Amino acid sequence: MDAIEDFVTHVIATGFDDVPAAAIGSAKTFILDSFGVGLSGGAGPWVDEMIQLAGQWGQGDDARVWGHGMRLPAPAAALCNAYQIHNAEFDCVHEGAVVHSMTVLLGAAMAVAERDGGVSGRDLMLAAVLGVDVACHISVAVTTGLKFFRPGTAGALAAVTAIGKLKGFDAGTLRNAYSIAYAQMCGTMQAHTEGSMLLGMQVGFNARNAVAACDMAMAGLQGPQNILEGPFGFLRLFEDDYDRDVLLGSLRRTWRITELSHKPFPSGRATHGIVDGCLRLQREHGFDAGEIEGIVAAVPPLIHHLVGRPIENTMTTNYARLCAMYVTAHALRHNGIGVDAYADGALTDPASQALARRIQIKVDDNPDPNALVPVTLTLTLKSGAMHAITVSDVYGSPANPMTHAAHLEKFRSNCAIAPRPIGAVAAQKLIDQVETLETLDDVTGLVDLMMPARE
């Protein structure tokens, strides 16, 4: 029996009261976090163009674009909102799965919830927990490296799970929805390799396709059954190999949403271990960035593949966010990374450029093709002093989490820097409503609060 049947059973059989309090707490945290980065992501490249184009591809007022207000058909709204969540590389991630598992899910699920109405806060949290569970249980079982963009491909399965749970699909309908989404699944790692803005759009494409897949399944369309383990199933076509014991071994025992990591910085998560380690050394030893002679970072192969790209005199924002040399240099000179790190003046700053060129990213002997830790740093000062650190628990991970206060500060900051700010009052109302989400009767009210403040 294809493992998709185990996941269908898990989704259908699990109710809100079956989910532990820790998983519900994580759902609240990362729903709010995703709203915040989605609002700030409205300033990302090609956002306005995407919204305008989406309005030309079909008529409908199902759901709104966060922080903008334009009404679109649900699939188009899902595309735009998922893209906004991811385009600043500020969205949460499951490190072991290498999946931004809330991004496609929330963009799609909220579009359907707004279109259909009557989705409660409890419904949304349960849908999020189960969507993350499906995407991440599948992805942590993979034993080979990325060749497709897993945040998009596995994200599509997360979104179908969430929508299917919101709409009360039976087993057959949910199975067909997974199948139809699989037929539309997309996302190439070439966009990541080149630092193309198309990378973030790939999560949007999968959000749009997940909504369409669920609508088609509800209308009765049937698809192939063995979409995970069949000869051309997900685990054999989009991935190369997997461990079936890991795939199903902790299902219903480990709630993957509790394993998600915050991103404290708007840069690829694969940069965070290097940045975190360097900032720890700087705080401990008190040196200035100008005192650094050089840094050598020994990293797992995946980190080198994702963010080991060379510094360039002229870089696009998308390229720079995934350049560990640049973001580390900027962080050491500015005590961290904000969205202003990608302004033209910052990207070409001579001091940041010079320091970045003194940073080496080298591959270590880690045999795990999906590992993001540990990262070992050796930092040499111009005085000859050397400092070293190995980072196994990167800031923002469950083992080294952001505090609740830091999480809320990130959210408020993202609301404030959105191109069309919602205002401090609405931001606080969003915090209050998400932190008491189990009492909310209709989550459409959350979208109301994400509309631009009236002048």
Q: Can you describe what's shown?
A:
Helix 4 (74-86) runs antiparallel to helix 5 (103-116), helix 7 runs antiparallel to helix 8 and helix 13 (269-285) packs parallel to helix 16 (324-334). The mean pLDDT is 97. The chain is built from 21 helices and six strands. The chain has 455 residues and is of the alpha+beta class. It has helices spanning 4-13, 21-40, 47-56, 74-86, 103-116, 121-140, 150-166, 171-184, 190-194, 198-218, 234-237, 244-249, 269-285, 301-307, 317-321, 324-334, 344-347, 350-356, 404-417, 424-435, 444-449; strands at 63-64, 71-72, 292-299, 359-363, 375-381, 386-391. The chain folds into two domains: 4-264 and 410-449, 2-methylcitrate dehydratase PrpD, CATH 1.10.4100; 269-391, 60s Ribosomal Protein L30, Chain: A. The chain is globular and about 70 Å long. The strands form two sheets. A four-stranded mixed beta sheet has the order 4-3-5-6. The chain has a two-stranded antiparallel ribbon with strand order 1-2.
Short description:
With 455 residues, this protein is α+β, with helices and mostly antiparallel strands.
Measured on Cα atoms, how large is the radius of gyration? Answer: 21 Å
Sequence stretches where pLDDT stays below 50 over 5 or more residues: none
Number of helices: 21
Output the helix-strand order.
HHHEEHHHHHHHHHHEHHHHHEEEHHH
* CATH homologous superfamily identity of the largest domain: 2-methylcitrate dehydratase PrpD
Secondary structure: number of strands: 6
Which CATH class of the largest domain applies here?
A: Mainly Alpha
The total domain count is 2
Portion of residues in helices? 40-55%
The major pleated sheet works out as: 4 strands, mixed
> Kindly state the mean pLDDT as a whole number?
97
General shape: globular
Strand content: 5-15%
Distance from N terminus to C terminus (CA atoms, Å) equals 58 Å
CATH architecture grouping of the largest domain: Orthogonal Bundle
Provide the spatial order of strands within the biggest beta sheet: 4-3-5-6
Structural class: alpha+beta
Stated plainly, the CATH topology of the largest domain is called 2-methylcitrate dehydratase PrpD
